[in-house]
Design a protein that fits this description.
With about 170 residues, the chain is α+β, with helices and mostly antiparallel strands. The protein has a domain at about 10-20 and about 65-170: Aminopeptidase. The protein has four helices and eight strands; from the N terminus they run E-E-H-H-E-E-E-H-E-H-E-E. The protein has helices spanning about 25-30, 45-60, 115-125, 140-150, and strands at about 10, 15-20, 65-75, 80-90, 95-105, 130-135, 155-160, 165-170. The protein has an eight-stranded mixed β-sheet, with helices on both faces. A hairpin with a 2-residue loop joins strand 7 (about 155-160) and strand 8 (about 165-170). Helix 1 (about 25-30) crosses helix 2 and helix 3 packs across helix 4 (about 140-150). The two termini are about 25 Å apart.
């Protein structure tokens, strides 16, 4: 498995900043719209609950076969956090694979932020010798499917928990 250390990722408009517990207060506001949870379930977290969640994420996976990498998305022109991206790295018989996910707060949706963040994340993952990137997307979540497609992932015939697996393999990139 790659032992790369999480680091900031820069794209044209965004800084993907490694997640810190201190981000919880601002992110609680960013993620406060209940509509963000339609496809993923649950409800918005309070700042205190989000702080506790971020403490667990920053501590890392209790499973030594997994590495958790989490970033907040900072839109530089507004100097504002707008969402998150994450990658869960595992080792397979074919090398490292990463399950990725993204969420952008409602006020910033429709501006290409999730797509730009996903592309930046995937480019960084290739530099970490990840061989496969996967995302699991609810079949009715057209916006997330559009982000996955724009980032180069394609739907597969596999489903998990009612979600479609989207995938991109590094050897498929020309």
């Amino acid at each position: 498995m790659s032992t790369g250390k999480i680091e900031a990722i820069e794209t044209a408009r965004l800084s993907l900043v490694p997640l810190a517990v201190e981000h919880a207060d601002e992110m609680a506001e960013v993620l406060s719209d209940p509509a963000l949870h339609v496809f993923i379930g649950g409800a918005p977290h309070s700042p205190q609950a989000l702080r506790a969640r971020y403490e667990r994420l920053v501590a890392g996976s209790p499973d030594p076969r997994e590495t958790w990498w989490n970033w907040v998305i900072r839109l530089r022109e507004e100097d504002r956090l707008t969402g998150t991206v994450q990658a869960t790295l595992t080792t397979t018989e074919h090398g490292s694979a990463a399950g990725v996910a993204w969420v952008v707060g409602t006020p910033w949706q429709g501006r290409g932020i999730a797509t730009e963040a996903a592309r930046g994340l995937i480019a960084w993952l290739w530099e970490q010798d990840v061989r496969v990137v996967r995302a699991h997307i609810h079949p009715d979540h057209r916006a997330s499917a559009a982000v996955a497609a724009a980032a180069g992932l394609a739907p597969t015939g596999h489903q998990y928990d009612g979600e479609i697996r989207w995938e991109l393999r590094s050897d498929a990139i020309s």
